[in-house]
TrEMBL record:
Coiled-coil annotated spans: 254-281
Protein name according to UniProt: Ion transport protein
Keywords for the protein's UniProt record, in alphabetical order: Coiled coil, Membrane, Transmembrane, Transmembrane helix
Organism: Parendozoicomonas haliclonae
Single annotated GO MF: voltage-gated sodium channel activity
GO cellular component terms attached to this protein's record: voltage-gated sodium channel complex
Location of the Ion transport domain: 26-243
Length: 285
């Protein structure tokens, strides 16, 4: 018997068939379509008039979507059974499974609010359905450790400018600089470039040179630090793409080759039987 994987469990033909269904394009497109429909229904449910007219249809669509998600999870786990570690070892599968379980919470009683919030999570399943989106999210997660030093640099810059702003402008503009906390909030407003010139002009009415403080902070806090964040993300994106390319170009293992040979052998046997049946039918006629 041909063994597959490192756990020594045999892959049965019906499991291969189920895996083929799960990996097929039409199945993936069906799930994506249901996710999109679910997202539209969630948005439409915010209108009381639409809910009054089509509320029963929305309930039916919700049940269909939940049933489809349950069937999808069952098929994926069945395809790798009894090696469920291969299913739960994938972070995206765990996310999909969690969303599916939360979708089973009844939208009544004290759990109604949690059930509605869980329905919103289904929209996030679009991320797991598209490989490109999965790559971007994985890159952002990988970038978190590298962003630590950038965040520390940004905190140092914010702290220095907040203390300096308090001492320079607290008397002329107490609304924005009367304490360290308010100063930090003001700097956050400035770094978002939201009406930051109004704050600057209020200080320049007393100190004409105040523009130096504000412009230097905008350059350091916005352009330099934000570009550092982007650089970290792009660097991790290139690494993720390189790893994905390496996985695609790696040599197959012995077990994978044997599994493919087994699948090819089974296909040839089925084809031979079909040819024999066709020859038999032709001779009988």
């Amino acid at each position: 018997m041909i063994k597959a994987g490192t756990e020594g469990a045999a892959v049965k033909p019906w499991q291969q068939a189920i895996q083929g269904i799960v990996d097929s394009g039409w199945f993936n497109n069906l799930i994506i379509g249901l996710i999109i429909v679910n997202g539209l229904v969630i948005g439409l449910e915010t209108d009381p008039g639409i809910v009054a007219a089509f509320g029963d249809w929305f309930v039916l669509l919700n049940q269909i979507v939940v049933g489809a998600f349950v069937i999808e999870a069952v098929l994926k786990m069945t395809a790798v059974a009894p090696r469920l570690g291969r299913y739960f070892g994938n972070g995206w599968n765990c996310f999909d499974f969690t969303v599916t379980v939360l979708s089973l919470i009844p939208a009544v009683g004290p759990l109604a609010t949690l059930a509605r919030l869980a329905r919103l999570l289904r929209v996030l399943r679009l991320v797991s359905a598209f490989p490109e989106l999965r790559l971007i999210v994985s890159t952002l997660i990988r970038s978190i450790p590298g962003m630590g030093h950038v965040v520390m640099l940004m905190m140092v810059i914010f702290y220095i400018y907040a203390v300096a702003g308090f001492h320079l402008f607290s008397e002329v503009d107490p609304t924005h600089w009367n304490s360290l906390g308010i100063s930090l909030l003001t700097l956050f407003r400035i770094v978002t470039l939201e009406d930051w010139t109004d704050v600057m002009y209020a200080s320049m009415e007393v100190y004409p040179w105040a523009w130096v403080y504000y412009v230097s902070f905008v350059v350091c806090g916005t352009f330099v630090v934000i570009n550092l964040f982007i650089a970290v993300v792009l660097n991790n994106l290139d690494e993720a793409k390189a790893e994905k390319l390496q996985d695609l170009t790696r040599e197959p293992t012995r077990s994978e080759i044997l599994q493919e040979l087994k699948a090819t052998q089974d296909s040839l046997i089925r084809l031979q039987k079909q040819l024999e049946n066709a020859e038999r039918n032709r001779s009988a006629s």
